[in-house]
Request: fold
Amino acid sequence: MKRRDFCKTVPCAALAATYPAFLYGTDSEDHSIKETSMSETITSVQAKVIKGSCALHKIGDMAEFKESGVKGKICIHALYSMMPAVFAMLFDAQFPWLKDKDTKTHACPDAYNPVVFEITRIREE
Reply:
């Protein structure tokens, strides 16, 4: 099984047995859950500075993340703190609290030079 397919299916498979029971109880009605599939493939995730600056970053700076690596300049502190979100977005994870499912913000953990990044999922057209 390909890694991308595994990352997409395992969380759903783990929840599949319990999810309908939590939502609907255990009655005999058919409450089938349909999985939706995105027709566009995710090609990369981009992180762009939208607010703040520090010794390395200024507004407009961008880094691009692909399965093969990182293109662009990004400090180790910002990189380390945003990698869980970037990795999740590369594999089409959904964050239910986001208004736009393909864009989220992320603040660098440096309290003295706060920089805010906009992390965007890039899909094939």
Q: What stands out?
A: Residues 12 and 41 are 19 Å apart (CA to CA). The chain has one domain: 3-123. Residues 3-123 form one domain.
